[in-house]
Recover the amino acids of this structure.
């Protein structure tokens, strides 16, 4: 469990299957905060990751670095393309039929 196990599993995938170009290692989130005053439920899909144990220790407090650039850097082009496609499909379904006559 945790980030160390996830990193080891990812490394083992790459060494076992050399032809992989893009992989997703998914699992169950240990804790989900409220997202802008809405609850997250089992089955909800998250398209982002925040590493909760990365930050800087100050006297008396720990400050989490949670900006994307701090933890992950810019996502792979293939990942950004897939996420963009998923988001586009979701937005198109949300548009009322008045705006998109068939």
């Amino acid at each position: 469990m945790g980030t160390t196990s996830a990193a080891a599993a990812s490394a083992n995938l790459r060494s076992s299957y050399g032809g992989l170009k893009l992989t997703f290692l998914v699992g169950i989130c240990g804790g989900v905060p409220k997202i802008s005053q809405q609850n997250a439920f089992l089955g909800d899909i998250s398209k982002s990751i925040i590493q909760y144990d990365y930050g800087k220790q100050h006297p008396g407090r720990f400050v989490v670095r949670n900006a994307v650039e701090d933890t992950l850097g810019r996502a792979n082009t293939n990942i950004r393309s897939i996420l963009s496609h998923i988001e586009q499909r979701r937005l198109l379904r949300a548009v009322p039929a008045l705006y998109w006559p068939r």
